[in-house]
Known about the structure:
The structure holds two protein chains of two kinds. Chain A has eight helices and 27 strands. Chain A has helices at 2-31, 44-55, 74-77, 97-103, 120-131, 145-148, 372-378, 385-392; strands at residues 170-172, 178-182, 184-191, 197-213, 219-226, 230-237, 243-250, 254-259, 265-270, 275-279, 285-289, 296-301, 307-312, 317-321, 327-331, 347-352, 358-362, 366-370, 396-399, 406-412, 415-420, 426-429, 435-438, 446-452, 457-462, 466-471, 477-482. In chain A, the strands form six sheets. Chain A has a seven-stranded antiparallel beta sheet with strand order 1-2-3-4-5-6-7. In chain B, strands 2-10-9-6 form a four-stranded mixed beta sheet, with no helix packed on it. In chain B, strands 12-20-19-16 form a four-stranded mixed beta sheet. In chain B, strands 1-4-5 form a three-stranded antiparallel beta sheet, with no helix packed on it.
Amino acid sequence: MIARHELLLLLTRIVMNRFRLLRALVVLCAFATPAPACAADPAFLSDVAPVLVSRCASCHNGAKARSAYKLDTFANLLQPGTSDAKPVVPGKPEESELYRRLVAENPKERMPPGDDALSTNEIAAIKKWIAAGGTFDGSDRTAAIKSILPARKHPAAPEKYPVAAPVFAITFSPDGKELATGGVNEVTVWDAVNGKLLRRLPRLPTRVHALTYTSDGKHLIVGGGTTGEYGEIALVDAKTGERVRVFGTFDDIVLSAAFSSDGKLVAAGSADRTARAYHFADGKVAWRASLHSDWITGVAFSPDGKWVATSSKDRTVKVLEANTGKLFTTFNGHRRQYAPHVGQFEVYAVAFDATGTALSVGGGAAIRAWDPVKTQDENGSAADMEERFKKAGHTRYLEFAVGKPVFAMALGGGHAFSAGGDGVLREHDVASGKLIREYAKHTDWVYAVAVHPQTGRAATGGFDGLVHVFDTKTGDAVTNFVAAPGFSK
Amino acid sequence: MRLVLLLLAFLLPSFATAADAPSRIEVYPAKVALGSNRATTQFVITGHFAHGETRDLTHNATFTLSAPVVEVRTGVAFPKKDGKAEITIVAGGHAVKVPVEVSGQSDPDPMRFRTETLAVLTKQGCNSGSCHGSPDGKGGFRLSLFGYDPAIDAESIVRGGLNRRVDAFNPADSLMLKKPLMRVAHVGGKRLNKSDNGYRVLLDWIASGAKTDDDKQPACVQLLVYPGPNRVLRAPHWAQQLSVIAKFADGTARDVTSLATYEISNKESLAVSDEGLVTGIKRGQGAVSVRYLNHLESVHFTVTEEVEGFVWNNPADVNFIDKHTHAKLNQLRVLPSDTCDDATFLRRVYLDLTGLLPPTDKAKSFLTDTTANKRAKIIDELLASEEFARYWALRSADLMRVNPKTLPGGRAELFADWLIDGYRKNAPFDKAVTELLTATGDAAKVPAANYFLAIPNLEDLAETTAQLFMGSRVNCAKCHNHPFENWTQEDYYRIAAVFTRVRKAPKGTMVSIAATGETTHPTSGKTLTPFGDAVTDPKADRRVSFAKWLTKPGNPFFARVEVNRMWFGLFGRGIVHPVDDFRSSNPPAIPELLDALATEFEQSGFDRKHVLRLMCNSRTYQRSTATNKFNEDDDTLFSHYPIRRLTAEQMQDAIGYATGSLAPASELAEELARAEKELAAAPADRTKQATVKRLKDRATYATQRLTPEQSAFLKAFGQPKRESPCACERVDEPTVDQALQLLNGPLVAGRVSSSADAFAKLTDAELTEWLWLAAFSRLPNEAERKKVSGHFKKAATRPDAVRDLVWAVINTREFLLQH
């Protein structure tokens, strides 16, 4: 079983390397203009589409597309806008409006208006693509171009950090000896006891918001992206940082990722409001869910593998069937009418404990602990819902006194560790709901929390780049460090 | 905008020609000190020409330096290196030398959040009320309105949204820049260009660490805008560069011309660039409001141009009102209309001063009167009448919420009568308002004390008082500094502090003053001193000091607001319009006129009748509504009399009179005397008592009653409910309901129907003449007489003929409109 798994990874690696070789060739050709028949002409998906998406699509999109010209899908891209000029005349870039408008001398005609022109390489690539026939190398002409873009290549991480970068993700290695944190275009790995930098896993997304080790500790699931435009979820070699597989790309940053307990499914939630699950074995999409009306901030599998819970800035938690992605129920317990604290609270984290109780947290001065099935039983739109909620008592409140939202939560040893805007890491006993301990105050907002019950350590990462490691038996600090290689104050 | 100006510059005649050369040039500022690598100075070069004319030469000037310490581009000095030098500025054949000192070029000067970043967010529109400045923000991103709460903004931009908006490592890739540049989809559209100064500010601020800890830095305390407070732009010289300098609490100053936000009150006449270059578009006037952080200053511009064929007809001035009006009209090349005829004048002045149509006998004698000063005489006569006092008091009572629902037990009537008495006796307005604002005692006996009982709470009292007597809508400042004027939240609660010790007996009618009670600032918690003159005795009634401050001659609001209300009463439009919206960004149409009227009002001892008399006697008031080629576009400068619909009450009484069911109110005194005599003979007679009361209260006249009649007809024509201090509560928009009411609503139908009996005794010719005099204050012309007599001949029965005629008359525009 294990052998087959390894073989698969090896295969993928070979394919990925091939792909990289091809890309290098393309880049070479772009510089080699006007040499005619180049071995590989620019391809639409890898060389043209990313430029169109980042520089043109924000205006030429949707019902209000400028001049009624849309380039959201390849089929639309070929349809003229109000000018009736053909966007792409295969083989004739000079007659193609798409190219002409990029190089027009009249500032009123040149696209994008009132902004920098596309780079000469970008323009050259589009020109060559049209000259070579303007063909489509994808499979579905009506699919949103954004959704079929190849995964981005990421730039190198800064050699030395000029400033500390916020730590959005933190996790212990399965043996508890190492701490991986999200950096800038990289994941950095640190000694969990003395805070020494052990490794840098480079060329990863600009921001890393989700980090989870495979149970053997050999790989990491890395989720992140570039805010407002790109997200990805990838399987990364924990030693070298090589992206073994990119499961999928998103329209906005990936904020969370989780493994099912049997390791067969990987789920990710993104600020583009979608949650997706992939088969770990072959990377294929298991399902996609667009059920939330705002960012998905957290995903978690139930221990029995039945449910996936997704938390959202839209103030709800949705429970989906883990195998199909179909909605099972919506937990509304972060809204005022169902809770002891006034307000409507964005939910930033969700987790299941070993008994299958869901825990979710955001604002509202309490972690909510609830049972998905009871929640569904109590769901409905009847007017007495609030009353029934109270009677049902299926939600318990693990209370704390904090006005700022809580951004992160980790479970371990029957305890919940949470922290957020007030910088304090809190430990609750899930069963009794009691607050066990408040750890020493972090100096800034905390965005990430991790716990390793076997070694009895908990860690936080915050806006100021500081990582604190605590001993959960004594409450004392183990170490703290700024997770920014080369940074000095 | 710059491009337009450059083109303009080429088209301009050369300044070398002696006839068109300035006599001198003026350079602002007189010296330049740039203490940071980001500091700049905007020059404004003014040429002074013959007849006091000024022109902006900023963008026609040349700048020569004695040492290259700065670089001057488009009239702005940018620092290059530390040192001192002299700039020689040459424009219009004159040269001026300006010393310049540059320092601190190598010292770090990180971009400041509170004074620069937030100013840019305002300038680009990010934090406006319809975008991220709305209470819930937009798209999950919330900013405080116009940056009034930097702490909220700091959190939202930097740590909020999981820090997604700023990227210290790739500043140019920050979402906060990508969104307004439309590099990624932005519901608010494109709000920023890379060439904008705002882009550089935001980018630098993010690159320098997106620091928000500058709360200890000195705050901006004053905004200096040059030139000001007003400027005339004469074609073809339609451009004016502004300079905006912010003064800070530590005494430093910084040129913020490129950071300030500019808004235009009249976009038809003016435009302004992001760099403060104002350009005229069309003849007219308007204000350019300059906002920087919580400060707002306005410059008023008049845009003029020669108009082909325009010749000023030099109308004679009756009084100073005409002098100022004519000056403005001539300046803007607008030709006033002729003086209206006697009939129009008589009807107009009767309706405006008494709310009623002139009685037919009055109209007939006035038309044939040949006395030279007959118009002045009738004005005096009307100002002395009981009808005037009642009609003008009704207008005041509207705004003071004199309403039997809120002031039961006869107190509404008591209060209304007090207001009437003020007009009747022509009480000096300063005294009357002082009496009102300082009233204490049992409101069942002290009429003015009802002012405090008609207004439900302290905040409303502050807002109402400011709106009524300071012409200012301060309610925005309750929650944050006012976005369009200089009212701060502190001002708001200082006005509230004036009234904070007013005590009303629960369910009773007693108004008293407590010896203690303070108002605190809602956010700082600071105890505030009451607005107005300083209160020396801590136990004294604070309202007395406030009233003293308010009514003191020279108060910027009091006299101007009241004369403007009087003007509004006569013209249907204020010199400042709306009448309770005095702010620097809503300038008066003729500022000199408003100032002169206010001064006259103060010097006359706040004599309302005196000012009304001046207004009514002016040629400006007596102009015809007919327009000419050179004033047909004007509806703000009073070049012709504005046509407007009769008010609800005027219309009801006019219909009553013209249908023969309502006698002239001037005959009431006689009737009352008779009824009182009859009652004296039988004092216990209930019917007689009721008759006297009805006559006393003038209950049958909508324009004369003590408290308003509530009827569907009045409501349809916009009678206010008396629930707010805003003159806008009286609406004048046309509605379908109004059309139906006039066609055959119960009031019209009833009165038209009874007119047949009322006019039964008159011959056809007599009736025609009476009707024309009553409805239009004029005699019918030949064509009209003929048409009417033809109508009588054709009609089946005379009563039907009378009814049809009366109905037709009251449905004419000549009847329904004030003209």
